[in-house]
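Quick question: what would this complex look like in 3D?
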Amino acid sequence: MNHLKLLKMKEKNIYNTIYFLLGALFILTVSCENLLEEKPETFLSEANFYKTQNDAIAAVDGVYQRLTHQLELYPRELMHQFDIPDDLTYGRVKTDFDFYTVTPEDGFITGIWRASYQAINDCNTAIAKVPDIEGDKNLLNRLTAEAKFIRALMYFNLVRAYGGVPVLTKPSTGGDDFNVSRNTVDEVYAQIIKDLQEAEPDLWDSYSGSDLGRPTTYSAKALLGKVFLQQKDWVNAETKLAEVINSNKFKLLPDFKDLWFFTNDYHEERVFAINHTRDVNPSYSYSFWGSRETGVRNPYGGWGQANPEEEFVNSWDTNDYRYQWTIRDKDINGNPLKQRFLLPVHKYTVVIDDNYTVFNNSSLDYPIIRYADVILMFAEALNEQNRVEEARGFVNMIRERSRGGLNGEENRPNPADISSGLSKSEMAQVIMDERKWELAFEGHRWFDLVRKGKFAEVMAQQGKTVSNDYLWPIPQADLDANPNLEQNPGY
Amino acid sequence: MEEETIGLDEVVAIGYGTMKKSDLTGSVVSVQSGDLEKVTVTSLAHGLQGRAAGVQVTQTSARPGGPVSIRIRGGTSIQASNEPLYVIDGFPSGDLNNINPNDIQSVEILKDASATAIYGSRGANGVVLITTKRGVKGQNYVRYSGSISIGSAAKRLELMNAKQYAEYINDYMLNSGNDPKFSDQEIAQLGEGTNWQNEVMRNAIIQEHNLTFTGGTETTQYLVNVGYLNQEGIIIGSDFERYSLRANLDSSPKKWLKIGSNHSISHSITNSFREGTGAGPNAGPIDAALEYPPIESVFDEFGDYTHIGYVQAPNPVAFAMLNEQIGYDSKIVNNIFGEIKLPKGFSFRTSFGTDLLFSKNNFFSPNNIIPGESSGGIANIGAGLRINWNFINQLNYNFELGKHDISATLVSDIAKSRYEGIGASNSQFFTNTLGWAGIGTGTPESVPTPNASVNEWVIESYLSRLNYSFDNKFLITLSGRIDGSSRFAKNHKYAFFPSAALAYRLSQESFIENISSISNLKLRLSYGATGSQSISTYQSLNALASLGRPYTFDGKPAIGLVPSRLANPDLTWETTEQFNLGVDFGFFKDRINLVADAYIKNTKDLLLYLPIPMTSGYSSKLANAGSMQNKGVELALNTVNFEGSFRWTTAFNIGFNRNEVTDLGGLGEFFAGHVGVQIVHNQNVYKIKEGEPIGSIYGYVYDGIFQNQAELDAIQYAAGRIGGYRYKDLNDDGIINADDRTFIGRATPDFFGGFDNEISYKNFDLGIFFSYVYGNDIVSATKMNRMTFMPNETNQLLEGYEKYWRGEGTSSEVAAPGPQNSANSRLVSTHIVEDGSYLRLRSAQFGYTFSPKNSNWIENARIYLLGENLFILTKYKYGYDPEVNTQGLSNINLGVDSGGYPRPRTITFGVRLTF
């Protein structure tokens, strides 16, 4: 009996031990909050970024990345928005952009708006964070200034396309009220001018190596000149553009065609351009302006989203050297292309090696401001101040280069110099036309027409009805999300 | 619904344990292997369709190995996942494609909170418990089962033929201000041309083989199953192959000890292509087959695939044949358990499981087809390793005293998952010969973009459950669970989920017992809370990202970082509270069984990606905002109409669910995000609004075609053109614009369910099974892009050709072709919203079972003929099938039809031999 009792006691002890072990097991699995803490491993968070000089460079290079990483801005969509509405361009695919029937739901309109404001928030973040980073002040100030330059460019694009848009200058955070209202056109311009004026002294005069292509102090001056000009502030425009011209840093290339070879992207006429590199951040310009008639992946061929309007092609003096480098009316074998509304724009479809075989993949940098534009803007600013003769000299510089007269080997008869004795309004028309020939399909024409109050008139000649102050619709998605946002008239 | 196959004394799985069916307090539906075998051989999810009241199974893609969406009692969440939790032999698991349906013994679907609360953290969308087959003492046999099927497209869409196409294009050209493309002579020579649907479709062969070895002694039982499935898709370039091996072992070496283990290895290979990605350059072969001009042939005069420039879509055959998209999944699941019987009614169970998934994807697109052609060929390789482990310890207690019966369970459960993946891509290949394996030979101009991804989460849970039964009459279940999830913000990680349920077995009362016709009567009442943490990891943290393509300075890439996600410091659990009232009836010795349930589910703190104005630099922000309600009724009726050598049983179920968004955290309403650019042209399709159900379609009301200038002048509409569409000016302001949109449809059904008849006579059996859905709407992107929107040179539906506007009074249905109508014809409107109701003859099976008398080695044999998707009754005609959801598992973009994979009609011959 005792034996049995002992066994039972032993059993009891065993069970006690088992229960103890079980309890321990439960407690072991109870752990602290650490187990549940999330550690980001493959991405950076604000907490571990914006610390070093290299972080500052990456933060600002991210801003540029936004400009070309998707189609929404410079690789393609801005060409839709800026060029197709003008009288030189036929929008073969996005006909609603050509006929002003675009709706607020349009994907391109939405995409341009979204990407522009993403870029602005990227700039706002860099401008807020970079100055607090320790390091080479000269470099850090320049980086901040670059972000301000890009922010100004974005607002300049937006204000011309959409009118008075909301001006945001601080990085967005989780707790913000995002239901912003629209600012006035003047308020947007005031911010653009402020940014450019602040950026100008901190940007560097020139760059080398892997910094080539960043905005210089002269990029800021020239853009500021362009901004003043668009506001018809002729005096300030003259001042800023004169600073660019008098710097002697730029010159017109002797041969107009040399502007359009991607192998020559960093030429002396470049004031600011968007950088594109095949396979990395390519431009779609080749296929966009290429011709459907010559066919995809053929010389001068492409998707043909836009082509020159037939009237514009026919109106051109074909002896003007710029004609053959702007409009391509022959195929690679020299045979004339038949369908004149499908001609390629030669500027963007220059054949180098086999670059036509790779679709939507151009290395050609997209010009924002080149020196010829600066000179013609300067001529306009002078002419508007009744300095017609001074203006004439600058227009003739452009025409001289077209003749191959600027150290060029050839000296063609056309286009002849503008003779003296024109009235101010005649000279204004001459400058407008010269800008048309020189800068066609570079995203200026629509704004030139608007500035001169001639947009409605010129488009009426093509049988299209549009008001001079035409603006694109604010995307419906943002109107839906933000009750404080108002649509542009007509939608 | 198959209650007749399991008696009240049978045991069902309830999560962390089992229970006698008669003791259940919650709403649990059990589907047995017999029913699964009757429908399908390829995936478990197909087998569940129409089988359980309130459980809606939708095949989001009908391609082999394609995903399936399951909604139990409606969607509880707006943007977090709505898929139920799948638990295989006690361990949560994600993907149903990797499990061989032949391995499954039973599936229990837990619907109400009393049943699901035990899986508190992840139970809000319902729980599907899968129990695999195990060896049974004394049942020693070898079994072969196999089948071979032929599938073909159940439907083709009617498109324009070559001649009609040419006439259409000429009208298109004239309307664009161009010369006609085809001369009358050319048109006269054209005939039918190429039917691209026929070119990409084929008769698909499906074969499946299983070999099972099982047996058991008093102490040890085993089951080993080897399976092979090879399923061709009915579209060329798509197929699915799966090898599987399962071994389940059980042993009781001591009276007080039981140990066991489950092992499964599966390897699947999926060949596929993009689908549901839209039209034009985004089209896959299914969309492209509808777009590609019938005047073109598959091959050109040189024997190469025809390649044309005037439409953006790729040659459909070339796309399917040249592009290579292959995915491998190797899954190894091992778990072991031990159970110790302790004195005084205690027992302890511990189990540890690991789930390893290795997946690899190869993609190659050569330089002569979209998408590779624009980059000189594209190669992508992705590979990932996911390791999940789960450690569960549980202490059980059983106590019986007289009429009192108590059982209690205490559990700790920790689960961790870690995924590491790598991806690489390259382009510009000098040769297509090497395919994806030549990824290293891309030209140096390309920027190599290797990327790594890491995804880790942890759930830590403690739970307890108490069951009390008095006199087998009153049953009470109480449970509570504390869950911590790594996905939420600091200090917001833990939550408590309680539940309580009561059941009253009236049939045990003498006053009911005396009514001989009533064999079972039970009332059930339950309430409980469950949670959802089904969002991506790291969402509470702010993030910076390097965008896809770096900027370049002097041709050299510069990596930049930009803000990509707003921080969410308050992010926490989404919680669903559910009330359920149910009744189980059995009449005439359970020959008639009726199960009825009514429920209300309230979900609060919805995990929402709130759209924020794009001016912020972001498009959305994740937050806990708003609440939603689902309420519904479910009925399941099972009858045994005849008994004996002629046996006829009927099973019918129906589920009604009503969903309403009750609060949106002050937002009132918002658009639920865009459907892809090329699908409905970047428009908002669904609006989420307080008082409206999710899946509410928002758009214009179609109002015919402007027939003349006078009609056009009568209203201000910027995009209006003669021969183009007009929409109703709902707010009567004289302008047709976005303010005239309203709710124009609902993607969620009024009711759905299944209807099954089983007849057997001697050795013959016949099963006829219908499934149905009623009252849901489909947004037909196919109709928009192939009929109402005719601004380009792609092929169109024949109906569009017959009905397009050719002058005043000629049509009020389809606009004149041409670019002038591009803006007004691609709006989301009533014109493209279609009724998606259907009744489908899901399957019909005829079988013969016998025991060969002359054979010493075949014990039992069965042969059967099975037809699936033989017949469908539906009004929907602008797509292959009304059961469509090309936007996948999203609860927002429900019911969009854009190039959905056509559902096959399948005839199967099968055999099962037991040795």
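Answer marked as accepted. Chain A touches chain B through 105 residues (CB under 8 Å).
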